[in-house]
Design a protein that fits this description.
The protein is an alpha/beta fold and 496 residues long. The protein contains 17 helices and twelve strands.
């Protein structure tokens, strides 16, 4: 069952927002596409590549409206929401194309509007009027989605769940300082701003340690503790869950009552506005998943990613939108789960990557399928940073990928300088993804212990590719893997 996230008042405000959106859509039809994913999944790169390929005539053979020539004009336009920062497409694509460096990660919500003029595939529709569709791309951190389940949890439930996670696996060592401080202070001690700040800082340090690249854990609410923005230092971000709360209510003027009040303020002033003003207004959604990072970091990271995706997808409002019901409510009628960085594997393993992604979200997607919403899982690379080749090794032909690893990346003790191309055999993902999840169940709690049932894999980060210029001086569009298939699923029916 999906968590109950809104009250009657919230739903009334959402209905008013939807009525305003639908009224604007009578003049300029639009679709709101949400792009999210946890850290390092490639949200910024996906949007930049999608827009660049549309604007620069990229190879999009599966995206039927472009392939058939029905799209006559594509342009960026001012976004409709003046209070939302613009997605800085020009800066991000300059990093990719000119500097051959990956753009900065998503740290706040942003938006971009791209409009397509097209000729309908239906003869009757062509007679009525030329088609026009604005795509409002809404980029937001996946960590913010992990906050939405908090709307259905009180402070005790939040504390119990967070502390239970913190006492298991590799988290146990990372949380020792924070939990020790909380136990020393005690929930019943008098409320004190200095103690509250020390506790919040220690809890935030624990979350940051979980997120480090060598651990890559994913279930880390509250999301704004890692991305505070202009809320840094505010009381709404100066709280912490408390371990082993006794039965009953918080004593008046206690540290417990202070933490509880600030937790509720966080939900009221941070989580609810994001849900109402942005998330509840989406029509389509793509969730980018860096499954390779989790597999590479070990079975505990893989299991944690699975739980994070369960929590994220449980917050969606999937379903079929009718003309009448969409006036007051809005359902996400297509959801794409995309396993990113497919270019880190030989194409022979892409179907295996898709199966791993499907297995990661299998617990969460049954409800989406039952709602009638469209659902698809695919492996893609928003920007293809490698090419494929074969090499001879000990009398065997091995499929490899060739690219320029980022400076500092290393395999088997070799550290790359960021300039030299190299051929890498990434290893083989298992044909049956269940093997990885059975390995999860057998994984010892010590993070230093290697699980022999996990595959030997060599994944490194590559620099973006060098793009050749045409005779006119224009750079070719960014290469990709299955970006056009993603466009067709998410947008093709709206351009029919």
């Amino acid at each position: 069952m999906a968590p109950i996230l809104t009250s009657f008042k919230d739903d009334a405000l959402i209905a008013l927002d939807n009525l305003a959106d639908r009224a604007a859509g009578l003049v300029t039809p639009s679709v709101r596409l949400g792009v999210t994913g946890l850290s390092r999944a490639g949200k910024t790169v996906f949007i930049s590549s999608l827009v660049h390929n549309l604007l620069n005539g990229g190879r999009l053979p599966v995206f039927e409206p472009v392939r058939s020539g029905r799209v006559s004009k594509i342009r960026l336009e001012p976004q409709p929401d003046d209070a939302v920062p613009r997605f800085q497409y020009e800066d991000h694509i300059a990093s990719l194309v000119r500097d051959r460096s990956w753009p900065d990660s998503t740290r706040a919500i942003s938006q971009l509007r791209i409009t397509l003029d097209y000729e309908s595939a239906s003869g009757w529709s062509r007679l009525l009027s030329p088609g026009r569709l604005s795509i409002d791309i809404v980029d937001y951190p996946g960590e913010w989605l992990l906050d939405l389940p908090l709307l259905s949890q009180d402070f005790r439930q939040f504390s119990d769940a967070t502390v239970q996670r913190a006492r298991t696996g590799m988290r146990a060592g990372l949380s020792r300082e924070w939990l020790g401080l909380a136990a020393t202070l005690g929930a019943a001690m008098p409320a004190d701003e200095g103690s509250a700040r020390r506790l919040a800082e220690s809890f935030t340090g624990y979350l940051k340690a979980c997120k480090e690249d060598d651990r890559s854990l994913s279930t880390l609410p509250p999301g704004r503790f890692l991305m505070p923005g202009d809320l840094e230092g505010s009381p709404a971000l100066t709280f912490s869950p408390l371990p082993d709360l006794p039965a009953g209510r918080a004593p008046k003027d206690s540290l417990w009552s202070m933490m509880e009040r600030r937790y509720e303020a966080y939900k009221t002033h941070v989580v609810k506005p994001f849900f109402r003003e942005h998330f509840a207004r989406l029509d389509r959604q793509i969730v980018l998943v860096d499954a390779l990072q989790a597999v590479n970091r070990g079975s505990e990271a893989l299991k944690d990613l699975e739980q994070a995706l369960v929590d994220v997808l449980a917050c969606f409002r999937p379903g079929v939108n009718s003309w009448l019901t969409s006036l007051v409510t809005r359902r996400i009628d297509r959801v794409l789960i995309a396993a990113t960085k497919a270019d880190h594997l030989h194409h022979e393993s892409h179907d295996r990557l898709e199966r791993i992604a499907a297995r990661l979200v299998s617990r969460a997607t049954e409800r989406i399928g039952m709602s009638g919403a469209g659902l698809e899982v695919m492996a893609l690379a928003s920007v293809r940073a490698t090419r494929e080749a074969t090499v001879e090794h000990d009398g065997h032909r091995l499929p490899v990928i060739v690219g320029t690893p980022i400076a500092g990346e290393k395999i088997n003790g070799e550290i790359f300088d960021g300039e030299r191309k190299t051929a890498i055999f990434p290893g083989d993902l298992p044909e049956d993804p269940q093997l990885l999840f059975e390995a999860v169940d057998r994984q010892p709690t010590s993070p230093s212990t290697t699980d022999p049932s996990m595959p030997e894999l060599n994944f490194v980060r590559f620099r973006p590719p060098h793009l050749e210029e045409t005779r006119g001086g224009l750079k070719l569009s960014v290469p990709h893997i299955r970006l056009d298939r993603a466009m067709q699923f998410l947008l093709g029916d709206r351009l029919a």
